[in-house]
Amino acid sequence: MKCPSCGYNDSKVVDSRPTENSSIRRRRECLSCQSRFTTYEIIDEVPVIVIKKDLRREIFDKSKILAGLVKACYKRPVTIEQMESIVDEIEAEIHNSLKKEIPTSDIGVMLMDKLRKLDEVSYVRFASVYREFKDVDTFMEELKVLQSEKESQ
User: Fold this and answer.
1) What is the model's pTM?
2) Same domain for 35 and 89?
């Protein structure tokens, strides 16, 4: 941090405390002239952009994932806490990937993987909408894959 008094490029932090507007107030001391000054640091969050199937772009909204999960898990033994946990895990995976844009297909795959482990009926419900099953045959193929995975365990 550059000293406002002498322009020296190094300082030490004497005191740090959070402020009301989610920034951090730091008292600093110049290592050259011992002058003290205050800086405010804010977190610069870059929003993640979701690329929809029709190539439109929207800001990532985890409430949309939760809404889809609620529909898929309707009348199933899945708690809202479990659904929120899945959404939080997916959000963390997206942010940790450091991608600035992510297709909805990637989010759908992550969601299906987690839902498959949690509740098979909810998984099939979600997959039927997500994969847009055109007929009973494609639906049955997905059920056969699920059944073969279950038998191999």
Assistant:
1) 0.64
2) no
DSSP 34-65: --EEEEEEE--PPPPEEE-TTS-EEE--HHHH
On whether both 38 and 85 belong to a single domain, the answer is no
Query: What was the pLDDT predicted at 134?
Result: 67
pLDDT more than 70, % of the chain: 96
Maximum distance among all alpha carbons in the chain? 78
Residues 117 and 145 in one domain: yes
| Residue 36 burial class via C-beta count within 10 angstroms: exposed 0-12, middle 13-18, buried 19 and up | middle
Please check whether residue 3 lies inside any domain of the structure: no
At residue 64 the predicted structure's pLDDT band, cuts being 50, 70 and 90, is very high
Examine the domain organization and report whether 32 and 93 are in the same domain: no
Q: Distance (Å, rounded) from C-alpha 95 to C-alpha 110?
A: 13
Query: Per the structure, how many domains does the chain have?
Result: 2
> What pLDDT shows up at residue 29?
96
